[in-house]
């Protein structure tokens, strides 16, 4: 009956669609399934080479503009703030809910990140579905294939985050036809789709990436071009999440064969003088405020107000226990903030900040994928398939740069934990830690073992259900086909 009521409302609005389109809200899936004008015609503007290139540029720009709140801020708090690496910081109640596993279905962060990711998917869908139809001779078949491949990477990347954050999510890969009074009932299930199983979403992600890898450009003007290296890296991450270690090895080997290398000094990755380096595989490039500046740096670093992603006592202890002076210095900055704010975890005389994004003039690049991550993923795959010697060789390659002694683990279990720890220390504040813990089944025991600076447990109320975010209540309210995650 509720569904029939929805259809009746849509039928009623569709009859007046031509006269008051601007006033209608017919945009489900966080305003992204249908077209930019609300009618399913987002791709209609892609008619020639120029408009196709403009659409692709717009899809790239979403990393820096349209969904920047996710890509320059939320991604890093979701990946580190929910883990043992950091506290939410600042004074935002919605982030405290996320950090402490007290999140509700009405949480503003869960709602906006769903919307941002589906916005990127809609942009990619417009390219994937419409660029192949362009007949302009100026747009060659090779260039069409490249553009579709780049868009498929973006769609796969967004779905990868969605399925890890929310579990089963609606899988939308086509644009809708223009909504009319005669087709609303027919396309209702496309307008308001139900959730698709995570396995099916992963299958689509892998399909998109397998199709993209041979088509995308081999290089670009900078590392913000989707290239085979970026596609292979994402494939490796997806297969690691699915624990298909043979395919992790295949894809990490493919990245290694492309000639990436570690920078000699860890600090060079973050000092702003070595951007788009030999280690970077996919990097978001920023220049200034006028071109989509990286304001995320100011969310994590600075003493003008209390910042997000405050490094945890547990992370600082992990660096100190490992005697990892090199990476700690590049990852955590401390300052005296006496009189500026209060904090229950840290003394104000030595208050820590996440330091990998430190340029607050909008020009700090963000390295989304880099070679050290790939080496450690391959090490993990080798260890899981019994090649401990090969795994330690790669692990020690990363440790050598950090000026740490070689790992000497004698068995698979201890080496597994050593690789987990190495990924934590190497990749802290790059949005990786939480997802590593979840995919390895370690999130609950690790978070239960966390201690603050006084040796007390924060008593996180984490259980199996809270590994996923809730489906946003706003999406539930406007889509009768959606169901809520267990525990919310």
Automatic annotation (TrEMBL):
Domain of life: Bacteria
Pfam families from the UniProt entry: SusD-like_3, SusD_RagB
Record keywords: Cell outer membrane, Membrane, Signal
Subcellular location: Cell outer membrane
GO cellular component term, pick one: cell outer membrane
Record CDD domains: SusD (cd08977)
Domain RagB/SusD residue range list: 297-488
Main localization category: membrane
Homology family: Belongs to the SusD family.
Protein name per the record: RagB/SusD family nutrient uptake outer membrane protein
């Amino acid at each position: 009956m509720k569904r029939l009521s929805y259809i009746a409302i849509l039928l009623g609005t569709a009859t007046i669609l031509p006269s008051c389109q601007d006033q209608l809200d017919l945009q489900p899936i966080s305003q992204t399934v249908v077209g930019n004008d609300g009618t399913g015609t987002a791709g209609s503007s892609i008619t020639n080479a120029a408009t196709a290139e403009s659409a692709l540029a717009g899809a790239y720009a979403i990393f820096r503009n349209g969904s920047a709140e996710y890509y320059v801020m939320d991604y890093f708090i979701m990946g580190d703030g929910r883990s043992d690496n950091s506290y939410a910081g600042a004074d935002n109640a919605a982030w405290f809910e996320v950090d402490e596993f007290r999140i509700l279905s009405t949480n503003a962060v869960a709602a906006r990140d769903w919307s941002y990711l589906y916005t990127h998917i809609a942009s990619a869908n417009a390219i994937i579905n419409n660029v192949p139809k362009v007949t302009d001779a100026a747009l060659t078949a090779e260039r069409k294939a490249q553009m579709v491949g780049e868009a498929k990477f973006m769609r796969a990347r967004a779905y990868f985050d969605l399925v890890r954050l929310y579990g089963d999510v609606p899988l939308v890969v086509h644009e809708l036809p223009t909504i009319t009074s005669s087709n609303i009932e027919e396309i209702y299930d496309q307008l308001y789709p139900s959730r698709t199983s995570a396995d099916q979403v992963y299958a689509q992600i892998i399909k998109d990436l397998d199709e993209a890898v041979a088509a995308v450009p081999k290089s670009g003007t900078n590392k913000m071009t989707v290239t085979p290296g970026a596609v292979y890296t994402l494939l490796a991450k997806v297969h690691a999440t699915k624990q298909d270690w043979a395919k992790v090895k295949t894809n990490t080997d493919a990245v290694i064969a492309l000639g990436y290398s570690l920078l000699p000094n860890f600090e060079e990755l973050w000092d702003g003088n070595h951007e788009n380096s030999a280690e970077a595989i996919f990097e978001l490039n920023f220049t200034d405020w006028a071109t989509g500046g990286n304001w995320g740096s100011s969310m994590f670093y600075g003493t003008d107000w209390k910042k997000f992603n405050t490094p945890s006592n547990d992370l600082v202890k992990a660096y100190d226990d490992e005697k990892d002076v090199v990476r700690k210095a590049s990852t955590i900055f401390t300052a005296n903030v006496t009189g500026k704010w209060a904090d229950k975890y840290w003394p104000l005389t030595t208050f820590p900040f996440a330091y990998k994004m430190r340029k607050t003039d909008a020009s700090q690049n963000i390295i989304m994928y880099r070679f050290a991550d790939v080496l450690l993923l391959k090490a993990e795959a080798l260890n899981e398939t019994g090649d401990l010697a090969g795994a330690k060789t790669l692990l020690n390659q990363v440790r050598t740069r950090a000026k740490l002694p070689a790992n000497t683990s004698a068995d698979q279990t201890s080496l597994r934990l050593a690789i987990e720890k190495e990924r934590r220390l190497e990749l802290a504040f790059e949005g990786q830690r939480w997802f590593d813990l979840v995919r390895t089944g370690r999130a609950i025991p690790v978070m239960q073992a966390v201690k603050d600076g006084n040796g007390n447990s924060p008593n996180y109320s984490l259980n199996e259900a809270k590994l996923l975010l809730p489906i946003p209540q706003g999406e539930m309210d406007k889509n009768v086909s959606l169901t809520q995650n267990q525990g919310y």
